[in-house]
Write a structure and sequence with these properties.
four-stranded mixed sheet, globular
Length: about 100
Amino acid sequence: MTAGVEDDNGIPVRDANAEIEATIALVKLAISATGAPVYLVMGNDSGESSANVLDRLLADGEDKLVSGFIHIDYETGEFTTYSRDGTVWKSEDHPVTE
């Protein structure tokens, strides 16, 4: 799709650079607003967008803004968090109890 053209949902398509910049701005806003760790989600594009954002953060020396990645299994709804410190947390190992 061409940047500026609306997608099937009526949302204007941004070019890749604008999308990366918008995501980094959102990461910075989330950190500022919450003071909590921020993770990038590996989405429907198998993490391509997240990798592009991290590449830009690395190039700018700001990679420590992101605490890690979250991979979601869209079939089961389970997710796995991979943190910078090597910690791996799997939702399937922590069932919700009521």
